[in-house]
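The methods section describes the discrete structure representation at length, but only in general terms. Each protein is reduced to its one-letter sequence and a matching series of backbone shape codes. I believe one specimen quoted in the main text would settle the matter. An entry of this sort, consisting of the sequence and the corresponding backbone structure tokens, reads as follows.
***
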Amino acid sequence: MARPPSSCLVALALLAAGCIGDQLQPFTAAERTGLVVSADSITHPTLGFSAPNPQGAYSRSPELQRRVDSSFAGHNEMAVWALTGAGGGNVIIQATKFSRLTEDLFRAYIRGFRREAVRQADAVLEDTVTWSTRGEYRLEIRVQRAFLRTRCLSRGGTNNVIVCLQAAAVDSTGIGEVPAGLTLAE
């Protein structure tokens, strides 16, 4: 069984950041190391996001994390965590921090993100962006034999951040549960 592409979100995030670079803020060491992966959830108490971890399916992947970290070298405004699934596939969580976050900035970020994803996709199954008091983006694509489902949420105010979670697997069954369950505290 072929492994799904794990560098897709990394490339997309770097592209997206190029659209809004003057508003980016660096992460602290505590923010970079605060991810908690347990048998039923994936959480970051400091940044205020969480997602389900069905039956503890995903765990940290030192090998994939090294690859992601090398791709993000020099990008202190982004924090990325890489997890692999026991049955194959992976989850990549990427957070980007801003000095301020408006609807226009969120949409610019998503345009950069979307441009590369759609270009690489063999099929786009879902592609929606919404804004009420905060932004949400949902994308599901097929790239070769892999399915990638992404959900991004934004938070403005004093702790401006966009958190994107991407689940990738060769089989589309079950990959939606983790991104669909992503929450981001106000």
Q: What stands out?
A: Confidence is low (pLDDT under 50) at residues 1-8. The longest helix spans residues 103-120. The chain is about 25% helix and 35% strand. The first strand starts at residue 36 and ends at 37.
